[in-house]
Amino acid sequence: MLPAKVATFFRRYAFAVVVTAAIGVALPAQAQSIAVIVNGEPITNYDVDQRSKFLTLTTRKTPPRNEVVQELIDEKIKVKEGKKYGIEYGATEVDSAFANMSSRMRLTPDQLAKSLESQGIRPDTLKSRMRAELVWGNLVRGRFRQSLFVGEKESDSKIEVTSDKDKDANFEYQMRSVVLIAARADSGTLEQRRKEAEALRSRVQSCDDAVSLFRSMRGAAVKELIIKTSADLPPALREILDKTTVGRLTPPEVTKQGVEMVALCSRKPTTADTPQKREARDKLYLQKFEAKSKEYLAEVRKAAMIEYR
Description:
It is a single chain. With 309 residues, this protein is of the alpha+beta class. The protein contains 14 helices and eight strands. Strands 3, 4, 5, 6 and 7 form a five-stranded antiparallel beta sheet that branches. Strands 2-1-8 form a three-stranded antiparallel beta sheet. A hairpin with a 2-residue loop joins strand 1 (34-38) and strand 2 (41-44). Helix 3 (45-59) packs across helix 4 (65-84), helix 4 crosses helix 7 and helix 7 (123-143) packs across helix 14. The protein is globular and about 75 Å long. The two termini are 39 Å apart. The relative contact order is 0.14. The model is unreliable at 13-30 and 161-166 (pLDDT under 50).
């Protein structure tokens, strides 16, 4: 069911979502009553109720009202501080972020919106939360770029190499995606194209073979050459590429365009970032970011005018 899918997604990606939008429709007077005023901007009891429902959906726990109110206060403060430095996200940008989130959940924006509404949650509740986090993340990264920087020595000190294989397994891959075009909704055509793809794999012995073959076919496409290192790729794809002979095609996979394979043009060792280095650096950066974000918010909050009703 969609609501369960939505709840699961938000528990995994809770850091990605965010804050403040006008209600835009007439509501009962009780719902419009003000709970808090933050720097002259109201937070209504309706806002608190909506956020409480959203947090209950994503955490499967009903949060204390005070925690909900404090979260909404913090978001008002974040948006106002962002405006101070010229950092704002309009409706178009927030809608784009909402669409990206929907896509990661394999839903359309309308499907995600309807799923939230089925739980009594207006989509603006999520979009408001998204706006605040987008503003705040941009602001903290911009203002404290130097203090958030993670040097190579610092990240190297956190790496735990479990084997010689882990230490040496860092490659640069050159590859091209090739596609047999088919609509995902047409299962019969997809299956036919998948069989066709499997047959073509045995014919391709080099990247040039793949380019020549797929460009000569109707209903096929060849994408641009891309270059990635081990650290740039998810583990599952790295494993597939490491098992693929240079010059050959990876097993076919169904994508939005049809049946897709990757022609591995080259695979060579590189001294660039290893996956372990990238992971260690990202972890250290996140720790620094969270600490600086907490410190900065506490500082800005002291100067905020907060009036409880």
